[in-house]
Amino acid sequence: MSRETHPVGARSGPEDASSLPGLVRRHDRDRYQTTLFAPAERHEALLALYAFNYEIARVRETVSEPMLGQIRLQWWREVLGAAYAGMPPRQHPVVLPLSAAIRELALSRGYFDRLIDSRERDLADAPPASLGVLEAYAEESSVPLIRLALEALGVRSVALDAVARHVGIGYSLSGL
Questions:
Q1: Which end of the chain has fewer CB atoms at under 10 Å, N or C?
Q2: DSSP 3-state assignment of 5?
Q3: Distance between CA atoms of 132 and 128, rounded to whole angstroms?
Q4: Which of 27, 26, 53, 24 lies closest to 38, judged by CA?
Q5: pLDDT for 116-153, tens place per residue?
Q6: CA separation (Å) from 83 to 7, 80, 90, 108, 143?
Q7: E strands in 76-139
C-alpha cells in the first residue's frame, strides 16, 4: 500500500483518483485488481472494504502522536457502530458505501473490530520482537479483511477460514 496520503473526494468516475475506485486503485492496486474479477454487483462493497482498510492503515503515518491516531480509529469504531445500529451514515465517501455494504451483506462486525485493533497496536510503532509476533501481526492486520471480502462475495465457509488465514499472512508478509 502506498504511503501517500490524499483524502478521498466526491465521486467523479471509476478512474478518477478522488473516487472510491480511484482511491483503491491508487493506494492498494493489488486489491483493486481483485475487484475486477468479482461480480459487478459486488464491486462497490469490495472497494468500500479496501478503502476502509486503507483509511485505517494510514493512520499511523498521518498522525504526530499515538493519541491522535486513537482518536481517528475511535471515529471509525463509531462509524461502524452506527452502521450496525442502522443509523444514518456520516457523509464521508468511504463511510457511505461501507455502511451500505454492512447493511446489505450482513458483514461480520468482529472482523472490522480486529482490523481496527491491529491498527491501534500499530500506533506503538515498535518493531516485532520475534518472527512469531510478526506472523501474528500479519494475521490480525490482513486475514479479517480477506474474510470480509469473502463475506461480501457471499462466501461463508469454515473450510475456507484456514485458506484465508494462510493467504492473508502470506500477502501481508510479502508487503512488508
A1: C
A2: coil
A3: 8
A4: 24
A5: 999 999 898 788 999 999 999 999 999 999 999 999 99
A6: 22, 5, 9, 12, 22
A7: none
d(CA 114, CA 165): 14
Q: Confirm if 123 and 70 have CB atoms less than 8 A apart.
A: yes
State the sign of the Cα–Cα–Cα–Cα dihedral 57, 62, 65, 71. negative
Task: Judge contact between 5 and 61, C-beta under 8 A.
Answer: yes
Which contiguous run of DSSP H or E holds residue 25?
Answer: helix 20-27
Looking up cell 461501507 gives: 98
Flag whether pLDDT at 22 surpasses 60: yes
Judged by phi (left if over 0) then psi (alpha if -120 to 50, else beta), residue 35 lies in alpha
CATH of domain 20-174: 1.10.600.10
The residue assigned the cell 459486488 is 42
Residue keyed to cell 494462510 = 166
